[in-house]
Amino acid sequence: MPNIGVPGLILIILLALIVFGPKKLPEIGRAFGQTLREFKKSTRELTSDDYEDHEKKTTK
Q1: How far apart are alpha carbons 60 and 48 in whole angstroms?
Q2: Confidence of residue 48 (pLDDT cuts 50, 70, 90)
Q3: Which of 24, 36, 54, 55 could be cross-linked to 20 through a Cys-Cys bond (beta carbons 3.0 to 4.6 Å apart)?
Q4: At CA 31, angle to CA 25 and CA 35, rounded to 5?
Q5: Model confidence at 56, in pLDDT bands (50, 70, 90)?
Q6: C-alpha to C-alpha distance for 38 and 44, rounded to whole angstroms
Q7: Torsion sign over Cα 27, 35, 33, 37
Q8: Residue 25 backbone class (left: φ over 0; alpha: ψ -120 to 50; beta: rest)
Q9: Would you state the torsion angle of the CA atoms of residues 37, 40, 42, 44, taken in this order, to the nearest 10 degrees?
Q10: Residue 31 contacts by C-beta under 8 Å, 6 or more apart in sequence?
C-alpha cells in the first residue's frame, strides 16, 4: 500500500463519515477489527501447522 499521508487519511475519514454516518462508523470499525483479528489468528495457525509438519518430516 502506498504512503497515504495525513491529508489522504483525513480525506478517507471524511468520506467514511459522509457515506456511513457517525452512528454506523464505530460498528464498522469493530467489525473490521474482529475480521482482522480472525485473519491474523488463522494465518498464525496455518504457519505453525506448516512449521510443525516440516519438523515432523525432517526429524524422521
Answers
A1: 19
A2: confident
A3: 24
A4: 145
A5: low
A6: 10
A7: positive
A8: alpha
A9: -140
A10: none
Per-residue cell: 17: 463519515
Cell numbers at residue 8, please? Answer: 489522504
Contact 40, 48 (CB under 8 A): no
The position carrying cell 475519514 is 13
Predicted confidence (pLDDT) per residue in 19-39, tens digit = 988 889 889 889 999 999 999
